[in-house]
Design goal:
The complex is a heterodimer of chains A (735) and B (273). With 735 residues, chain A is α+β, with helices and mostly antiparallel strands. Among the domains of chain A are: 174 residues, Aldehyde oxidase/xanthine dehydrogenase, molybdopterin binding domain (Aldehyde Oxidoreductase, domain 4), CATH 3.30.365; 120 residues, 2-Layer Sandwich (Aldehyde Oxidoreductase, domain 4), CATH 3.30.365. Chain A is 29% helix and 25% strand. In chain A, β21, α14 and β22 form a beta-alpha-beta unit. In chain A, α17 crosses α18. With 273 residues, chain B is α+β, with helices and mostly antiparallel strands. Chain B has 9 helices and 12 strands. In chain B, the strands form 3 sheets. Chain B has a 5-stranded antiparallel beta sheet with strand order 4-5-8-6-7, with no helix packed on it. The relative contact order of chain B is 0.15. Classes of the chains: A alpha+beta (735), B alpha+beta (273). At the A-B interface, α19 of A face α6 and α9 of B.
Chain lengths: 735, 273
């Protein structure tokens, strides 16, 4: 039965209160452990299409008469367009339309960050559009940009109010501490670098528009486009069948979709607007830089008495101030915690969510700080974490399920390797092992729906208007349906990625697709299965296979529908984990490389272990890039970006990828839905940077405080450690 | 834009841009850093034979990295350059003539190399930039191969002359912003060098593969003498004559001096110098 509830909805650590109609989730969870299909390795059902190029991504789409767009963007972080003339562009061959500031809301003459869109041209070919763009006469008055996050906080240039969160008595906690460690950590701007850049093809058909777009949220695009264009939502069709990466940066329509829509309206043609790699790495979002000024107080046995932090998120011109303080607030039992988080509004390109926004940065700071504490107390870092573990959520709500201690236990054999790893050090290459814990959301939530149809051939089609961001959720849905129906995986097809085909499903962000849509798919399959069982009974075929039961149906179909039930009331649904990194540091050249990472994560029931290990590997590799080589730089004087190409912005290569061992606890969260599954998209990237930094300390004694850990930072930290050592040795003996 | 095939090395017309592997020229054209309307393909007319002590300038790096007659310093410089795909295309001479990776230059800022009156890197982001000869222009020369050949004391034969490799390069000055001495229409044909006893190339980069050198160190021992040349430390491939104490690092690239010092020490130890 449907029920109207007022509930909190969480996405990427941001909560909002919403009204929801939820349907009761009447199915019992399957018993723990691998089933016939669920819990067993499945290769991607669309792997062949993707690998052979048959899968049509937005970037592949060619519609008859389609025009191509080039966008004029501000080359300056802050500038005003003093004059602009589109006429020379319109006069060039192949050009169909040009639009400028004010023609649509997304084009402006007052530019507040580099890459902000000013004008756009569409033409028969991309080459013609680019030539036309160069012909636009545009004058900018360059204004002084605000670039320094601390300065922005001082001036009160903030996105939203400063966020203060406190529990207990922080000052008293510090007073009770035997040891206090303070440190400042900095993290850099990193870029999503999705293989498929942000893009959309928009065509006006009848009274509505059809939008093909590389997106993580077709329903969000549908609503935003409908609102932006003043259309009823059902006149907007949004399609994204295959996706070339998003990592959080493709949750909304952005300027390019509205540019394509306006140009399509003016030309009565389908129009594609696709960002180039340079545009992508300028204006399509980023993980913002942070400054974290952290303090930890502890008793000599390692019990935390106080945790405090001032967090500055260098958000850029817009976006939101992510939960960088989250790990400090949530990970440990510490009774006294006080944090303040500022979102600095700067003349830099806006951040967008990037795979566990805030928690990746905050975990680096917190978990590196904890190891500095462990070093000071001469405690085993794993033991320090165990001593401060909590089974009661420090913020009040109970945990729906938590197996972090089990993660620690499973990490032990990897942690034990540190003695052997250290022993392999040479005079110049020091080796060490470090660990870090992971906490994050990932429970998903309602609403999400799925339909299923079973034909007389015994084959099933799952229909749901979700999108597979590339994580393999399409395969996971097929596994769930096949398991519940009791038919082979090859007999299930999944139709997704089209708002005109099937019911609403959640956005693919916040590690939410599998835990949100999966239970709806199982419910739909169960609905169909029950009908098939009734037919079986009538045919005297009880216990027979689905194919045998339905084989007389001819054109009749069994239709099932299912909905995602509510989240457990009063419980926090979180994911946990731990990673253990083995690194080598060349102490003369500052080179750092990672030799092995073991990851143990707790995300409830695992649907597809093979897909899950891919997610873990992907998260760790992206995390290694974040830790060691990636950084978007801007010129300090002007704020103009310097590293927008892939030769200057250094993603990890396959040669940088270490041995990765992934393990999952695979115990269903008994309170969460009919599956007990949580999401795994984000957890694996969260602890990687801290684990590497802590392994560096284990190897060398040096405290790295800044990402990326460049040679410059590594050599600085080594010099500092050496000076500290000399001081110690030189100090008078005694006390 | 016109593209034609040269019939011989002398078949190069005024204003034509020479195209061999294209791995450097094509991106420069696409970003508008090199202007030109006509390209002439010289890959088939420039020698590409590889023999002991003598290499055709058109030989792709991929061929050099696995040829046992090539000294280790040059093989390793090739192996550590770029990616396999780029090395399959990129030619030896093209590698020697590549432009700096200075981001200001690549983004077409009006810097001194582009005829302007400022080096933006000196006061700006210069962590990958030069630590020698950097007072006028702080760009760093990116060629691993050039450092290896400089350490080998290689000579070049062009369509008009023979010269030591060192004389191919010049540190840009106020009066002359060029970084090479190549004349218009002059084509590098061949690189030659004497045998050596031991040699090595060591490279520091920001990831394990496919990155330009932060510091590359080429060292060659021949008779009693050792020649050490560096990549990525000056606007030109840099022959290390006075050691690293004479380096003039900028505030954010002093680490390069430490890295270079460590690699030079290792390189010397490796070749028994």
């Amino acid at each position: 039965m449907a029920r109207l509830i007022r509930t909190e909805k969480e996405v990427e650590g941001r909560y909002e209160e919403v009204w929801l109609v939820v349907e009761e989730d009447s199915l019992d969870q399957w018993p723990a452990g691998p089933r016939e299909i669920v819990g067993r390795d499945a290769v991607r059902i669309d792997g062949r299409e993707r690998a052979t190029g048959q899968a049509v991504y937005t970037a592949d789409l060619q519609k008859p008469g389609m025009l191509h767009t080039a966008v004029l963007r501000s080359p300056y972080p802050r500038a005003r367009v003093t004059s602009i003339d589109l006429a020379p562009a319109l006069a060039l061959p192949g050009v169909h339309a040009a639009i400028g500031p004010g023609d649509i809301e997304q084009l402006t003459a007052d530019c507040s960050f580099q890459g902000e869109a000013v004008a756009a041209v569409c033409a028969d070919t991309l080459g013609q559009a680019r030539a036309a763009l160069r012909a636009i006469a545009c004058e900018f008055e360059v204004l002084e940009p605000l670039l320094d996050p601390d300065e922005a906080v001082r001036r009160g240039s903030l996105l939203g109010e400063a966020r203060e969160r406190a529990r207990g008595d922080y000052e008293r906690g510090l007073a009770e501490a035997d040891v206090v460690v303070e440190a400042e950590f900095r993290t850099q701007v990193v870029l999503h670098n999705s293989m498929e850049t942000h893009q959309a093809v928009v065509e006006w058909i009848g009274e509505g528009v059809e939008v093909h777009i590389s997106t993580q949220y077709i329903w969000g695009i549908r609503d935003a486009v409908a609102q932006g264009l003043g259309l009823p939502a059902d006149k907007v069709r949004v399609v994204c069948r295959y996706m070339g990466g998003g990592f959080g940066s493709k949750n909304g329509p952005d300027e390019y979709t509205f540019i394509a829509a306006e140009l399509a309206r003016r030309t009565n043609r389908p129009v594609k607007c696709a960002l180039t790699r340079r545009e992508e790495n300028t204006a399509a979002g980023n993980r913002n830089a942070t400054i974290q000024r952290l303090t930890v107080g502890a008793r000599s046995d390692g019990t935390l008495t106080a945790l405090g932090g001032e967090f500055v998120n260098a958000v850029g011109w817009s976006g939101w101030s992510s939960g960088t303080e989250g790990p400090m607030q949530m990970l440990y039992a510490c009774p006294n915690v006080k944090t303040v988080t500022y979102g600095a509004k700067l003349n830099l390109p806006p951040m967008k969510a990037f795979r566990a926004p805030g928690f990746v940065e905050g975990t680096f700071g917190l978990e590196a700080l904890l190891d500095e504490l462990a070093a000071k107390l001469d405690l085993d870092p794993l033991e320090l974490r165990r001593r401060n573990h909590t089974d009661e959520a420090p913020e009040g709500n109970e945990y729906s399920g938590k197996n972090l201690l089990e993660c620690y236990r499973r990490a032990e054999p990897h942690w034990e390797r540190r003695h052997d790893v250290r022993a392999r050090s040479t005079e110049t290459v020091k080796r060490g092992v470090g660990m870090a814990s992971q906490i994050w959301y990932g429970g998903g939530g309602p609403p999400s729906y799925a339909w299923i149809r079973v034909g007389s051939d015994g084959r099933a089609t799952v229909v749901t208007a979700m999108q597979d961001i590339g994580t393999g959720t399409r395969t996971a849905m097929a596994q769930i349906a096949a398991e519940e129906l009791g038919i082979p995986l090859e007999h299930v097809t999944v139709t997704l990625g089209d708002s005109d085909h099937g019911p609403y499903a959640t956005l693919s962000a916040g590690s939410s697709t599998t835990p949100s849509v999966g239970p709806a798919v199982r419910a739909a399959a169960a609905d169909a299965r029950e009908q098939i069982e009734e037919i079986a009974e009538q045919r005297g075929l009880k216990g027979a296979s689905v194919a045998e039961v339905v084989d007389v149906l001819e054109d009749a179909q069994i239709l099932g529908k299912g909905a995602r039930g509510p989240n457990p009331t009063g419980k926090q649904v979180l994911t946990f984990g731990v990673q253990v990194a083995e690194v080598a540091v060349d102490i003369e050249t500052g080179e750092v490389w990672v030799e092995r990472i073991a990851a143990v994560h707790d995300v409830g029931r695992v649907i597809n272990p093979l897909g899950a290990s891919s997610q873990i590997e992907g998260g760790i590799i992206q995390g290694i890039g974040h830790t060691l080589s990636e950084e978007r730089l801007h010129d300090p004087a002007t704020g103009r970006l310097l590293t927008t190409t892939l030769d200057a912005y250094k993603l990890p290569t396959i040669a940088d990828v270490p041995e990765i061992v992934s393990e999952l606890i695979d115990v269903p969260d008994q309170h969460l839905t009919n599956l007990g599954s949580k999401g795994l998209g984000e957890p694996p990237i969260i602890p990687t940077a801290a684990a590497i930094a802590n392994a560096i300390r284990d190897a060398t004694g040096a405290d790295v405080r800044q990402l990326p850990i460049s040679r410059e930072e590594m050599l600085r930290a080594l010099r500092e450690a050496e000076a500290r050592q000399k001081e110690k040795v030189g100090a008078p003996a005694g006390v | 834009m016109e593209l034609r095939r040269a019939s011989s090395v002398d078949d190069v017309r005024d204003g034509e841009l020479l195209l061999a592997g294209g791995t450097e020229l094509v991106p420069l054209l696409r970003s508008g850093l090199v202007q030109g309307q006509s390209l002439v393909m010289v890959g088939t007319v420039v020698p590409r034979a590889v023999g002991p002590g003598k290499i055709g300038a058109g030989a792709p790096l991929a061929q050099l990295e696995c040829d046992p007659t090539i000294p280790e310093v040059l093989r390793e410089a090739c192996r550590l350059a770029a990616s396999p795909q780029l090395r399959n295309m990129g030619s030896l001479a093209g590698n020697l003539l590549q432009s700096t990776r200075c981001w200001y230059w690549r983004l077409n800022w009006p810097c001194r190399l582009h005829g302007g009156d400022e080096c933006f890197a000196r006061d700006g982001e210069h962590r990958e930039h030069a630590i020698f000869a950097n007072d006028y222009c702080a760009s760093a020369h990116p060629s691993d191969v050039a450092a290896a050949l400089l350490a080998l004391d290689a000579r070049l034969r062009t369509t008009t002359r023979e010269l030591p490799l060192a004389e191919l390069y010049r540190v840009p000055t106020e009066d002359d912003r060029r970084t090479t001495t190549l004349e218009p229409g002059e084509v590098i044909l061949e690189v030659s060098f004497e045998e050596c006893e031991q040699s090595v190339y060591l490279k520091a980069m920001e990831r394990k593969r496919w990155a330009f050198p932060l510091v590359g160190v080429a060292a060659v021992r021949r008779g009693g003498a050792t020649r050490v040349a560096l990549a990525g430390v000056a606007p030109v491939p840099w022959l290390l004559e006075d050691g690293l104490d004479s380096a003039t690092p900028l505030p954010r690239n002093a680490y390069k001096v430490d890295v270079a010092r460590a690699l030079v020490k290792r390189a010397r130890a490796t070749i028994g110098a």
